[in-house]
Amino acid sequence: MDYYIGIDGGGTKTKAVLIDDNLKIISEDIGGPSNFLVFDIDTVANSLIELIGNVLNKGNIDSQNVKKILLGTAGAGRKEDAERLENKLYKVAKTKSIIINNFKVESDARIALEGAFAGKPGSILIAGTGSIMFGKDSNGKIHRVGGFGRLLGDEGSGFHIGRAGLNAVAKSFDGRANKTLLTDLVKEKFDIANSTQLINEVYKNNFDIPQVAPLVIDAALKGDKICTEILNAEVDELIAHIVAMKEKIKTDVLNVSLIGGTITTDNFYAEKFRNKINELPKVKLKEAELPPDMGAALLAKENNL
Fold it and tell me: What is the dotted CATH code of the domain comprising 120-288?
């Protein structure tokens, strides 16, 4: 019997699952953070080896029988960074006399996509602090829409909403636009009462812009016209992602699974977005079938065949 390990890496914790050829879960375990762009790569590699050892011990499986281990984590979109962690893990495993046959690092979005549709075609739209969309067609080809980062993209995300909100506040301070309830909310929560304070917070104090997004949503819910316009524009941006993905995948019905607090939390913005999706022809929202760690395990098995 051959075995596979899927790992869902995170900034605070990492989950691993050990499965057999029949996709039966043998064992699971949770370890420390594994974002190698935030934490020291040696620390991450050692933490992963410990986690791998724990799931093997729990399942009473020898590492030699594991055909492939696949980690999905943030920061793995760049091949050279992923390879750096792969090479480091092999070195650490060797010092601990643990046999690792095949270890691969993929992006966290990739394993989320695989898990959401249990390996079948579909798409995921991620909108949290940033935004990106991934899709898998009937031929197994992966397609991407968005994901250009905060300078060129992240439309529909917490950052984009927050930035648009602060832009409206800046214009309000100047008298370049109508007043918005958001100005009062920003003053109340962040003690920003004028243009000088706003500039200092954003450009000198590394102000966390996505924090403003909930205030924009709150103001829109209370009937603020400017904030309502902001949310409508951001919803349209996310809808444009979906329309573009449907064209890329060329499927009759596009199944979409949503990920990220901005669009999965029960809020006014998420409700607007879901209502707009329901107006799209041949687009269906689907709950994820499997968690990302199982997505990683499935991908490990698929890529090993």
Answer: 3.30.420.40
pLDDT in tens, 52-90: 999 999 999 988 899 999 999 876 666 777 888 899 889
Q: How far is CA 141 from the centre of its chain?
A: 20
Domain 3-118+291-304 sits in CATH 2.60.120.260: no
Tokens of 192: 């920003």
CB-based contact 45:92 (threshold 8 Å): yes
* Structural tokens at position 172: 């309000």
Stretch(es) of the chain classified as CATH 3.30.420.40: 3-118+291-304, 120-288
Q: What pLDDT does 236 receive?
A: 96
pLDDT tens track for 229-285: 999 999 999 999 999 999 999 888 999 999 888 899 899 999 999 999 999 999 999
Secondary structure (H, E, C), the chain: CCEEEEEECCCCCEEEEEEECCCCEEEEEEECCCCCCCCCHHHHHHHHHHHHHHHHHHHCCCHHHEEEEEEEECCCCCHHHHHHHHHHHHHHHHHCCCCCCCEEEEEHHHHHHHHHCCCCCEEEEEECCCEEEEEECCCCCEEEEECCHHHHCCCCCHHHHHHHHHHHHHHHHHCCCCCCHHHHHHHHHHCCCCHHHHHHHHHCCCCCHHHHHHHHHHHHHCCCHHHHHHHHHHHHHHHHHHHHHHHHHCCCCEEEEEECHHHHCCCHHHHHHHHHHCCCCCEEECCCCCCHHHHHHHHHHHHHC
Q: What single letter denotes the amino acid at residue 171?
A: K
Q: Which of 2, 1, 4 is nearest to 103 (CA)?
A: 4
Question: pLDDT confidence of 224, banded at 50, 70, 90?
Answer: very high
